[in-house]
Amino acid sequence: MIVYYSPEDIVKNLSGSCVTIGNFDGVHMGHQALLRKTVSEATKRGLPSVAVTFEPHPLRLFTGKSIPPLITLLDQKLEILASLDLDFTLCLPFTRAMAALAPETFVARYIVETLKAKKLIIGYDYAFGKDRAGNYDLLSQLGQVYGFEVEQLAPVLIDDVIVSSTRIRDMIEAGDVWNARPLLGRFYRVSGQVIHGKKRGGPMLGFPTANMCLKDELFPKTGVYAVWAEIDQTIMPAVANIGFNPTFGNDILSVEVHIMDFEKNIYDQDILIHFVQRLRSEKKFSSLDGLKQQIGKDKDIARQILATAEAQQHNPLPNSSCVLPL
Ligand code: RBF
Ligand code: MG
């Protein structure tokens, strides 16, 4: 997949394309239905498939830098789009000027002039541009003017409820990562660099942890989780703690991962955490021994969970040759 950040970079001799458009935060099962349909329509017509998306997330332009917390930051979003076999992604800068654009202008400029769309596929609730005037009806009218077909897909339902980024955010914020998985089509993932922590885990507790440098994205509710830890395409069973270490009274949130049967130095490396299941809330222990015993139990339970077929059935990286170690 080729990513373009500016319409000028797009090949000039494009003879047509099949396009879908959206913010795609989370690239969840609803988004995936749109993206897959776009790829199959493109293949049928011998045209390239294109996803148009925006950066920053349009809501963030108005609410301030980190609201809403994103399910997928741009890097991860593009990685998942690429895994779905799109030919191009056009990632347009979302500015106040873009927000104020009349939908007719947006369509003429990007969908028609830049992408020469022959088919545009949109989600059941999609509307864009000033006052959300760019809805299915308007797009269909414009399609007749410019000669592209518009198709709106029905929502994807799981347990009779529509799959949406908001629903997934709520589940993750509640710590319900296990039930968010079918909506995402994968475990909820967060990536970051391993940084130096307080050096208590190994020496004091006997459970060395990798501390993650947090990014501007959504973290599950504080607590202890069974997770897969992925480093350099190797996936290992692990337990993670998200919280304030009440036993020691930290004042900032930390995310740390104890990887099972692992002793390598991984400072400064990138680590990807796949959240499988929440085990419990963080507790304040009156003794180090109490905490130590509890972490031992957490580790046993996590190992059992990660040994189940359900925890292994979504190969954490769809295109990787990762072998699960259990
Ligand atoms: N710290 C707490 O104060 N309370 C906890 O309940 C707690 N649970 C943890 C569970 C696991 C699996 C791990 C890896 C860590 C946990 N910690 C907890 C964090 C612990 O205090 C931290 O790893 C050390 O202070 C080293 O940074
Ligand atoms: Mg540590």
Describe the structure.
Residues 316-326 have low confidence and may be disordered. It contains 11 helices and 14 strands. Helix 5 (103-114) packs across helix 6. The protein has 326 residues and is α/β, with parallel strands linked by helices. The protein has a 6-stranded parallel β-sheet, with helices on both faces. A 6-stranded antiparallel beta barrel has the order 9-10-13-12-11-14. The site of riboflavin has 21 residues, from helix 9, strand 12, strand 13 and helix 10.
Number of strands: 14
CATH architecture of the largest domain: Beta Barrel
The percentage helix is: 25-40%
Q: Which molecules are bound in this entry? A: riboflavin, magnesium ion
**Total domain units:** 2
Q: Which spans have pLDDT < 50 for at least 5 consecutive residues?
A: 316-326
CATH fold assignment of the largest domain: Elongation Factor Tu (Ef-tu), domain 3
Distance between the first and last residues' Cα: 33 Å
Beta fraction: 25-35%
Tell me the name of the CATH class of the largest domain: Mainly Beta
Radius of gyration: 22 Å
Q: Could you give the topology of this structure?
A:
Blueprint: E1 2-4, E2 17-21, H1 29-45, E3 49-55, H2 58-63, H3 74-83, E4 88-93, H4 96-100, H5 103-114, E5 117-122, H6 136-146, E6 149-152, E7 157-158, E8 161-162, H7 165-173, H8 177-184, E9 188-195, H9 201-205, E10 210-212, E11 223-231, E12 234-243, E13 254-259, E14 270-280, H10 288-306, H11 309-312
Parallel strand pairs: 1-4, 2-3, 2-5, 3-4, 5-6
Antiparallel strand pairs: 7-8, 9-10, 9-14, 10-13, 11-12, 11-14, 12-13
Helix pairs in contact: 5-6
The structure holds riboflavin and magnesium ion.
Riboflavin binds next to helix 9, strand 12, strand 13 and helix 10.
